[in-house]
Design goal:
Radius of gyration: 30 Å
Strand order of the largest sheet: 12-11-13-16-15-14
Number of domains: 4
Helix content: 10-25%
CATH superfamily of the largest domain: MoaB/Mog-like domain
Structural class: alpha+beta
Distance between the termini: 34 Å
Largest sheet: 6 strands, mixed
Length: about 375
């Protein structure tokens, strides 16, 4: 259940929050993969050239045929003083034990002469050198990567159908309006988060904005159980109209974290409602974007059974950034010739500065001097 005393709980660090997500998110299981035959199944050429007997040295080779990739080599044979033209990936003919690449051959009227004496096994992929039949190639439960799928196909195994996760996105707040009065605002979070979801390789599902109303929020969360992930922005802090934590508690959601040691983004909440992952972000646009940028890649990767992508990059800060607060700070920067240049920022509502940034640098409590730094890329 979601606790009601959020203000009294210690703030969770960012690493703790990410670990909480990884610990509970379901990961699709992948079967183990065994080699169905020796890999490669025959001795193969790794170059275009001439299949030869190495012991013949630099003597002239008479051309006796050609072997292409995918061709049965049984009709070809390399005898003393002969050679078979061979292509990359083709099976080595009987009698041959080396390949001389095209660029290392001199052509004459009577055939080809190697520029240097061949070495046995040169440019030959030996049968079974990558794996013997029956070898366990990949443990069950390994992350679902492109090479994993290629390996499954190579050994004749069915592989999971790749699909793009669907992520519902809804903004909350009575202040949202398409034609705003001075005391209202347009919804920037919805389009911004949809773009981020798209850039991260999932399918965004736009959902209508929600009022600051408990019944409307409860109906919303009950009504979109078909989506694997739902992002909301707004309504997660400690204000009178911040209903999201209480509504999720009433629905029996399992809270993973609420309130983290990060600026901006302290009120961020993550929960499970059944099997659905809820990432409930603050309403200020800089907070909403940066916390989605931090947590959403982990959510999407875990649900898809893929490796969690690297979040932080190493760089060099051109000038110091102050941080007098009690939480680490993400500060917007431009990047020029490998250097991070801090932008002036007016806080978590300053979308203007964030829109000009290419990165946000991690600034610990007390500030960060010029020099080595880690940063988050803006997508």
């Amino acid at each position: 259940m979601l606790a009601m005393d959020a203000a009294d709980r210690p703030l969770m660090t960012l690493d703790e929050a990410l670990a909480a997500l990884e610990e509970v998110l379901p990961v699709p299981t992948t079967p183990g993969i065994h080699a169905d035959r020796d890999d490669p199944a025959l001795d193969l050429s790794s170059m275009d050239g001439l299949a030869v007997r190495a012991e013949d040295g630099r003597r002239l080779r008479r051309f006796v045929g050609t072997c292409f990739a995918g061709q049965d080599p049984s009709g070809l044979r390399v005898d003393p003083g002969t050679g078979v033209r061979i292509m990359t990936g083709a099976a080595l003919p009987a009698g041959a034990d080396a390949v001389v690449p095209v660029e290392d051959l001199e052509e004459t009227d009577g055939g080809w002469i190697p520029r240097a004496s061949p070495v046995p096994g040169a440019f030959v992929r030996r049968r079974g050198e990558q794996a013997s039949a029956g070898t366990l190639l990949r443990q069950a439960g390994a992350p679902l990567t492109g090479p994993w799928i290629g390996l499954a196909a190579q050994v004749g195994r069915a592989f999971p159908e790749l699909r793009r996760l669907k992520v519902g996105i809804a903004s909350t707040g009575d202040e949202l309006c398409s034609a705003p009065a001075p005391w209202q605002i347009r919804d920037a979070n919805g389009p911004m988060l949809r773009a981020l979801v798209h850039f991260l390789g999932a399918d965004p599902v736009p959902l209508p904005p929600l009022p600051d109303d408990s019944d409307a929020l409860a109906a919303f969360f009950r009504g979109h159980g078909d989506l694997e992930v739902v992002l909301t922005s707004g309504g997660v802090s400690l204000g009178e109209k911040d209903h999201v934590p209480r509504v999720l508690a009433s629905l029996g959601a399992r809270q993973l974290f609420h309130r983290i040691r990060l600026k901006p983004g302290k009120p961020t909440l993550a929960a499970l409602l059944g099997r659905q992952v809820l990432l409930c972000l603050p309403g200020n646009p800089v907070s909403a974007y940066l916390n989605a940028r931090i947590f959403l890649p982990t959510v999407l990767a875990r649900l898809a059974g893929q490796p969690v992508p690297r979040l932080w990059h190493s760089g060099a800060l051109a000038e110091s950034v102050a941080n007098a607060g009690d939480r680490p700070l993400l500060h917007p920067c431009t990047v020029h010739q490998g250097l991070l240049h801090p932008l002036e920022s007016r806080g978590s509502a300053d979308l203007v500065r964030l829109a000009h940034a290419q990165a946000c640098v991690w600034v610990p409590e007390g500030g960060l001097p010029a020099g080595p730094a880690r940063y988050l890329e803006i997508l």
